[in-house]
Amino acid sequence: MQPLGPAVPSALNGIAIAGLRLGEMRGKFEQQSSSVRIRQTLGGYRIMQAEAPIVEQPLTRKNAANLQEYLLQGSILDSSADVLLNRLRGLCDNSDSPVELFHDIEQVYTIKDQANQATFSLRARNALDNPQLPWQLRYVGQPEVGDKSRFTICRSVIEVGTSSNLVTWLNELGFRLDYEFVAKGHIFQKGRMKILVQKIHRVCQSGNPETLEPVSQSFLIELSVLAPPSQESLGEEMKAFADQLRPLVELEKVDHARLHVS
Amino acid sequence: MEKEDKQVDQAVDALLSRTTDLKNNIQQLILRLENEYETLQWPAVLDYFALISGQMNNLLKVLRSDKLPKLRNRIILPLLVSPDPDPDLQRVTDGRVPLFNHQAVPDYLRTLCDPEIEAADQVILNKAAQMNGDAAQKLIAAHNRICQNACEIIRSTREDWDVDATSRVAPSIMSGDTIVLLSAICGGRYLRGPERAPNPSLGNSCPKPMGGPMGPGKMPTATVRTNIKSARGMSSHPYMR
Q1: Distance (Å, whole) CA B16 – CA B33
Q2: Average pLDDT over residues B114-134
Q3: Which residue among B178, B185, B235 sits closest to A181, beta carbon to beta carbon?
Q4: pLDDT band at A15 (very low <50, low <70, confident <90, very high)
Q5: d(CA B54, CA B33)
Q6: Predicted confidence (pLDDT) at residue A11 exceeds the cutoff of 50
Q7: Which of residues A129 and A2 earns the better pLDDT score?
Q8: Does residue A224 carry a pLDDT above 80?
Q9: Are A205 and B173 in contact (CB < 8 Å)?
Q10: If you write DSSP's letter for every residue of B105-148 in order, what string do you get?
Q11: Chain B residue at shortest CA distance from A240
């Protein structure tokens, strides 16, 4: 569990990068966060912390929880997914307990900076199979591919658990829903690595998360670790694990710049 | 007589040092297998195996050497068999043999095989002795022929197996799907409007090679569905509570 205290200010720092008026936001955020609880990471980690008092900390860059997400991604066709799930179940921790499932909706909200037309987005996520769980607000930074000596891509991630009126709050701040999708799948854990095997669905009828349509015939697989920056051994650990899944699935560092070209 | 005793001492010392090396290596391997099974790599294990096999050879070389006095002419005479635990013995054997009692003696001082094994061995030897030369030659030839055939079959089908193995796993990945999925969740592509992800037919059993760039021209134009509103323009969120 990451400590609850710095999480809220660090989320605010992430927003501050986008050039919002910080003072105003902070007031609103703290109003909301009276019932804030932490939901550890995305994808149905059902570990929750009892309500804890929010620790007041001055909003400086120094005390921001500076965590990087080390990430490898890949996909596998539906027909072979069962083989992969079995293999993951054997390889990962807690192989004797049933596999943990999740069924989440993720909505991406963006806001435009009037001055330089830059957009900034935040991701709100909620579990559809268990709506009582806290919502999750996430800022995801630009991924860095790095050179060949680095095995994974690396991006800064700031996450915070919120109360259920997160969406209202985002709308009041001026954020607008850009797109949404439903992720359904399995989550595995191996040491500090997290493996998500998920099916991405588009929501055909906005507002009705029952009307789903798979985006592709493949499951998306993400192998990630949340850790402080510059941990070189981590990359090798992740690469070793990814190698164990070959040739069933090729987990690699996908250059996200390629996504926006096509 | 004294000279022979010295020789025996030397030989036993040599054997002891070889077996200690061997024992240490096996112990190290077991230790690593038990404690580092998560990080232990196959090459390291194979190195250990190679080392152990080399030391076995060394030990056998010592046993076979001409200088070695005939150890089989010597006997061990157990003077004392005791049902009480013996701390000295325990120390010498690293705790494997705590006491030298009537149960342990036959196992450790045995010079012949188990009577059952000897009986089984004897049956085979008798059978071999009864067979005449011609029949034996024929059997050997038949045996060699069968082995050769088996080798031939394995060799000729190995290529097929390799091809099978690769073709069985190849369809588990559809190239480009990772990009499709990631551009959906990271950039909202295929999620906003009527645009659909490229959907190749299911019967396509030979996926394209990995890593090919996906040009925009490859996207099939999607059938227009007018009932889907673009989510971009919505001002309020549908799941407000």
Answers
A1: 25
A2: 87
A3: B185
A4: very low
A5: 20
A6: no
A7: A129
A8: yes
A9: no
A10: HHHHS--S--HHHHHHHHHHHHHHHHS-HHHHHHHHHHHHHHHH
A11: B39
The number of domains in chain B is 3
Alpha carbons A60 and A9: distance in angstroms, whole number? 8
CB B136 within 8 A of CB B127: no
Residue in B closest to A205 by C-alpha: B228
The alpha-carbon gap from B241 to the nearest alpha carbon of chain A, in Å, equals 6
For residues B69 and B3, membership in a common domain is answered with yes
Residues B107 and B133 occupy one common structural domain: no
Flag whether the pTM goes above 0.80: no
| Contact yes or no for A162/A36 (Cβ under 8 A) | yes
B42 touches chain A (CB under 8 A): no
Q: Which of B39, B164, B239 to mutate to test the interface with A (most CBs of A within 10 A)?
A: B239
Is B165 touching A (CB cutoff 8 A)?
no
pLDDT score of B211: 39
| CA separation for the pair A140, B65 (Å, rounded) | 72
Structural contact between residues A19 and A74, judged by C-beta atoms closer than 8 angstroms = no
In a domain, B212, yes or no: no
Same domain, B69 and B80: no
Q: Which domains does chain A have, with CATH numbers?
A: 8-258 (2.40.320.10)
Residues of A in contact with B225 (CB under 8 A): 204
Contacts of A210 in chain B (CB under 8 A): none
Q: Is the ipTM of this complex over 0.90?
A: no
pLDDT, residue B168, reads 59
Residues in A closer than 8 angstroms to B215, CB to CB, are 262
Residues of B in contact with A176 (CB under 8 A): 232, 234-235
Residues B97 and B29 both lie in one domain: no
Quote the domain boundaries for residue B4: 1-73
Q: What are B152-191's pLDDT values in tens digits?
A: 999 988 888 877 766 655 577 887 888 888 888 888 888 8
Residues B119 and B141 in one domain: yes
Give the pLDDT confidence of B196-218 residue by residue, as tens digits. Answer: 666 554 333 334 434 334 434 44
User: Tokens in use for B187?
Assistant: 């950039």
B42 plus B22 within the same structural domain: yes
Q: What is the pLDDT of residue B196?
A: 66
Q: Is residue B130 a part of any domain in this protein?
A: yes
